[in-house]
């Protein structure tokens, strides 16, 4: 998407625009506008592309800039162009309809945007061969009913092995396969947290974890992360000791959204404090496979657990593909049995075929994940460079892993910026989505999961609307549809 037509390209498409039928009766600007409408109507000029700047088109067509300005104005008035000062002009159709990249006509609400609300990569090329290989394996399972509440043994073995490789001996009985990490969290909360139980979370944190906690009517306390330093060890340990929450939900490995990595000594101390306080720790390792720049990852938090206090959750979504819907829980074998019993009342079991696909992907983990890291580092650097160039007043901590960065803005404008950005085709997840009580308006999460060109384009558009923010007449807030 995010395509742009250059002056020369549009001039070629327009061809003999000044000699169109009926031309003699209309001024140049009207003829030019009519020609652009004609290109849009017959699909030769796509919808949602950025037209050249007025000066560029004037030069390409060898006409005066005033003529182009008037033509663009007419196109805006007829609903064929959407312009934002400083950002550019995008083609559209009157009545708020356009064609999405799927080729389908969609209402304006379904605009084919640069979606920075979702922090997840497109599927790796290995997914299709892994799926083919999985279908070859499937007959081995077809002789049974196919219900495996803790997951098929091959996948549990592969996941257990990956923990052992990280220095945490794990047996397949300690693993339960789920339909994604979110499902794992929900099941763990059902088991470990009575309704209205007390929970400690980081702030900012992953919004859908807050949603899962809200579903349990949890009483939530927060530990604030600093932009540069992450966790404040003393404060975190003191809150566990003093408030003795029933449960703490932490993302120590490239935290979403800040990208911070919890140091090894704090991991050990948090586990000790949790045990002393009677707090269960739910450790979300969604991003653990994605260190960047060769950053060493400390041992799993559960390494320091001697009393089955730590329940670890993780999944395939971030290193591999969210559409696979494969996650897991690592806990003690009795806890896994209890979780499996609880899940029978929820969804029975995970799809066998998808689990087999996961087995094949994990067998190829070294290659796939190495490519993901290279891709993410490149995209992160492109995003950082674009921010430094266009929004130098924003402060960012360079993430050493994961897929997101957390930016401190030049004012408490995150929600307003998200509203304005949507108008120019960028969907953002504003800071308050990552906290409680509408705080974090000075912050914005920016994922670097899209191609570098899209990220740079998005920053240019965001920078342009940031300039407009303080002007009157802001559009109404529309919630981003999915944040993940
Ligand atoms: C910290 C964290 N936990 C869980 C999830 C959900 O992952 P899944 O797609 O495996 O359910 C995400 C996805 O963004 C996440 O960032």
Characterization of this structure:
There is one protein chain. The protein is an alpha/beta fold. It folds into three domains: 7-112, Winged helix-like DNA-binding domain superfamily/Winged helix DNA-binding domain (Arc Repressor Mutant, subunit A), CATH 1.10.10; 127-363, Type I PLP-dependent aspartate aminotransferase-like (Major domain) (Aspartate Aminotransferase, domain 2), CATH 3.40.640; 367-468, Alpha-Beta Complex (Aspartate Aminotransferase, domain 1), CATH 3.90.1150.10. Helix content is 39%, strand content 14%. The protein is built from 15 helices and 17 strands. Strands 6-12-11-10-9-7-8 form a seven-stranded mixed sheet, sandwiched between helices. The relative contact order is 0.13. Residues 98-111 have low confidence and may be disordered. Bound molecules: pyridoxal-5'-phosphate. Pyridoxal-5'-phosphate (PLP) is lined by residues 119, 180-182, 206, 251, 256, 284, 286, 315, 317, 322, 327, 484. Pyridoxal-5'-phosphate binds next to helix 7.
What is shown here, in short?
This protein is an alpha/beta fold and about 475 residues long. The protein has helices at about 5-15, 30-40, 55-60, 65-75, 125-135, 155-165, 180-190, 205-215, 235-245, 265-275, 335-345, 350-365, 365-390, 415-425, 450-470, and strands at about 80-85, 90, 95-100, 105, 115, 175-180, 200-205, 220-225, 245-250, 280-285, 310-315, 325-330, 395, 405-410, 425, 430, 445.
